[in-house]
Design goal:
The chain is mostly helical. It has a single domain, classed as Hypothetical protein af1432 (Orthogonal Bundle), CATH 1.10.3210. The chain is 65% helix and 2% strand. It has a two-stranded antiparallel ribbon with strand order 1-2. It is globular, with a radius of gyration of 18 Å. 37% of the residues are buried. The model has no long low-confidence stretch (mean pLDDT 93). The structure holds fe (ii) ion (FE2) (2 copies). One fe (ii) ion binds next to loops.
Length: 173
C-alpha cells in the first residue's frame, strides 16, 4: 500500500494537522530505517496515519488525534535488533513505549494520541486493549498496512521469478 496512491501530500487539512511533525528532523529520520522489509518507517507511518485519518473522519471521530498519533506510532530511531538489545522486553512490546517517549519530547500528546501510540501493537503483544475507537482504528490499519507492505513486493518478485523460470525452461510457446 503506497501512501502516494492516497495522495496525503495533496490533502490540505491532513497536512495542516501534521505539518509541524513532518518538519521535525527526527521524524524525517524515520525514512532511514527499513520497515517491514521493503519500505521505510516514515512511509509506513504516513500510510497508517493517512488511512486511519480518512476512516476516523468518515466515522466522525477525533481524526486530528488519529493523524498525529498515527504518524508517531512507530517514532523510534533504532533497528529491531537495537530495541531487543535494550533488554526491556521484545521489540513488539517495547517499541511503542519508546515511540511515546520520543513523541512527548517533540510535541504535546493528548490522552487519545498516547493511547494510539502505546496500544498500536494490540493483539501482537501483551498490551491492554485500546481505550478509544481512534486507537483501535490505528492498530487495525497498522496491521493491514504491514501485511500489504510485505505481501505486495513478494507477490511481484514471485511473478517475475515464475515468468523468468518459464522462459528459462523453454516452456513459453
Ligand atoms: Fe509498531
Ligand atoms: Fe507500524
Amino acid at each position: 500500500m503506497s501512501q502516494r496512491a492516497y495522495s496525503w501530500e495533496n490533502d490540505v487539512e491532513f497536512m495542516s494537522i501534521v505539518s509541524d511533525l513532518l518538519a521535525h528532523p527526527e521524524v524525517l529520520e524515520l525514512s532511514n530505517y527499513v520497515h517491514h522489509h521493503f519500505t521505510n518507517r516514515l512511509d509506513h507511518s504516513l500510510t497508517v496515519a493517512y488511512t486511519s485519518y480518512l476512516i476516523a473522519k468518515k466515522m466522525n471521530l477525533d481524526y486530528k488525534s488519529v493523524a498525529r498519533g498515527g504518524l508517531l506510532h512507530d517514532f523510534f530511531l533504532l533497528t529491531v535488533q537495537e530495541v531487543e538489545g535494550l533488554k526491556q522486553g521484545s521489540h513488539n512490546q517495547h517499541h511503542p513505549i519508546l515511540a511515546c517517549e520520543n513523541a512527548e519530547r517533540i510535541t504535546d500528546l493528548n490522552e487519545i494520541e498516547k493511547d494510539i501510540i502505546l496500544k498500536h501493537m494490540f493483539l501482537v503483544s501483551k498490551v491492554a486493549p485500546p481505550k478509544y475507537k481512534e486507537s483501535f482504528i490505528v492498530s487495525m490499519v497498522d496491521k493491514y498496512a504491514a501485511v500489504i507492505e510485505v505481501v505486495s513486493p513478494l507477490n511481484s518478485l514471485l511473478k517475475k521469478r515464475i515468468i523468468h523460470a518459464i522462459y528459462r525452461l523453454g516452456l513459453a510457446t
